[in-house]
Structure to design on (531 residues):
């Protein structure tokens, strides 16, 4: 066999940086959180034309700068005429954007017909705080604006109460993780080493008390980081009881639904546990419980099913794709956990029993999951039937069978139909054998087979699946760096191998980093780099 030629791997660099406060500022105001709006474009600072400028646009600026909410949106060069280019005209924000660059505008680039007599301004509610170096505006190194400079914060004494205030001030929900030891790399400039002492109910970090005694041992190696979680409330609506229905999550104070393309059994199981409803036995999509209202969230929750709260799950992609309410996801949970109300053990339904862990399992549900593959979209095929989880025999197992599994779990298309317990041997019954799916069935048990429990197999013949949505994508430095794919429990880089500009733009969109991009291909020292 010929050996493969060595090739160099792709680096993607955005021409426009991801949303941050580094390319946006307020000038000529009484504080860094008030003034004329300026942002950096093509290496030059410029202003925003104030025609149609309103409180929604100002709110986006305040959020992006970590300056709380907008108090007012002054127009007509309230803080004095700016200088340089007028980069954006006729801005139209709806208020939910993470950055000013995400808002619609009639024109971008220098427009010589406009003057600085109408520069837009902003007055924000609070002192600046931001998260830097993370994957989005709600994760990263904690930095506080003091005067005109951003200061990092020492991890000594920074606790969950302090984190709650930062996440609230940034409109980022609740804290998920507080990370010390410069988890998001060391910052620059001054280290704000006073100990912050928040009660947790303050609206701004500025309202918290801080000690006068500095932690002399703190250096940038002690910079504290924070990951916030934007979802704050959870419910099921439209079902026959409180443990089944349309999934609705509260985001930035607004209720919305969840897209069924990216919501799976593991995510639903965590939600069921959180709502005291056992675990998920099915995740019907296509607005099975009726269409909801509000936004349709298409974020990818990376729950493995063992978490006790959705906020313990990471999110690998925000706003993965456009969905409508016809894609609203639903959940059928196994039922309320017992004992029942008032500490009294109530009677179990005739087809249910309680496990040793105290979870109610009902035999009249059938469900599907993938186990042992390191993610929700790859692994050993397991079916919940007659009150027990069991496996599927690999006799006659092929890509058409695997396709039904991937489609049922909203995991894309089947890449591989594995046999011989490639994801490890399961336990319990072997529920299905000799499956003969056409590939267009909605559930695996709609396929022709040898019947439930009619098998002549052992667990060394357990069937498995790898679906296309299992291949998670990221850039090694957030919105720049090596393009990497997560497969079989490991992140690996993607080789260039003739990748064109359209593919690179797709990668930027996939990781929620816009579309503008540049490819950098490392070459041997004797070669000239091509861009």
């Amino acid at each position: 066999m010929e050996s493969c030629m060595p090739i160099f791997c792709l680096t993607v660099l955005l021409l426009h940086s991801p949303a941050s406060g580094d390319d946006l500022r307020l000038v000529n105001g009484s504080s860094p959180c008030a003034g004329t709006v300026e942002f950096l474009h093509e290496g030059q600072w410029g202003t925003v034309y104030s025609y149609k400028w309103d409180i929604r646009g100002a709110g986006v600026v305040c959020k992006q700068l970590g300056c709380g909410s907008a108090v007012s949106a002054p127009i007509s060069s309230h803080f004095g005429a700016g200088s340089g280019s007028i980069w954006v005209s006729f801005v139209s924000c709806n208020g939910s954007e993470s950055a000013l660059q995400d808002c619609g505008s009639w024109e971008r680039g220098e427009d010589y017909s406009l003057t600085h007599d109408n520069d837009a301004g902003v007055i924000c509610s609070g002192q600046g705080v931001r998260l830097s170096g993370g994957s989005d505006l709600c994760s990263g190194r904690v930095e506080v604006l003091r005067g005109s400079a951003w200061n990092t914060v020492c991890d000594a004494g920074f606790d969950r109460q302090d984190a709650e205030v930062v996440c609230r001030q940034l409109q980022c929900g609740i804290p998920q993780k507080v990370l010390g030891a410069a988890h998001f790399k060391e910052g620059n400039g001054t280290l704000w080493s006073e100990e912050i002492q928040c009660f947790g109910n303050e609206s701004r970090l500025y309202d918290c008390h801080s000690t006068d005694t500095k932690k002399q041992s703190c250096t940038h190696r002690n910079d504290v980081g924070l990951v916030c979680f934007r979802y704050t409330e959870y419910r099921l609506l439209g079902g026959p009881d409180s443990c089944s229905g349309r999934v609705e999550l509260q985001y930035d104070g607004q209720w919305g639904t969840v897209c069924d393309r990216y919501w799976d059994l593991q995510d639903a199981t965590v939600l069921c546990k959180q709502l005291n409803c056992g675990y998920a036995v099915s995740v019907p999509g296509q607005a099975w419980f009726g269409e909801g209202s509000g936004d349709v969230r298409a974020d990818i929750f990376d729950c493995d099913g063992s978490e006790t709260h959705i906020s313990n799950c990471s999110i690998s992609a925000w706003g993965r794709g456009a969905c409508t309410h016809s894609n609203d996801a639903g959940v059928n949970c196994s039922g309320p956990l017992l004992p029942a109300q008032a500490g009294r053990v109530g009677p179990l339904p005739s087809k249910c029993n309680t496990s040793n862990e105290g979870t109610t399992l009902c035999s009249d549900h059938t469900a599907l999951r993938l186990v042992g593959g390191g993610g929700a979209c790859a692994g050993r095929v397991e079916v919940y039937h007659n009150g027990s989880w069991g496996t599927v025999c690999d006799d006659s197992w092929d890509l058409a069978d695997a396709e039904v599994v991937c489609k049922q779990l909203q995991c894309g298309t089947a890449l591989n139909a594995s046999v011989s317990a490639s994801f490890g041997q399961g336990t319990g019954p072997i529920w299905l054998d000799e499956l003969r799916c056409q590939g267009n069935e909605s559930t695996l048990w709609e396929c022709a087979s040898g019947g439930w429990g009619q098998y002549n197999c052992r667990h060394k013949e357990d069937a498995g699946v790898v679906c296309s949505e299992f291949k998670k994508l990221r850039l090694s430095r957030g919105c720049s760096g090596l393009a990497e794919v997560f497969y079989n429990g490991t992140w690996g880089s993607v080789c260039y191998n003739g990748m064109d500009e359209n593919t690179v733009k797709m990668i930027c969109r996939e990781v929620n980093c816009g579309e503008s991009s540049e490819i950098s291909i490392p070459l041997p020292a004797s070669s000239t780099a091509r861009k």
In short: The chain has four domains: 24-124, 129-229, 233-333, 366-469. Confidence is low (pLDDT under 50) at residues 1-20, 107-112, 337-364, 521-531.
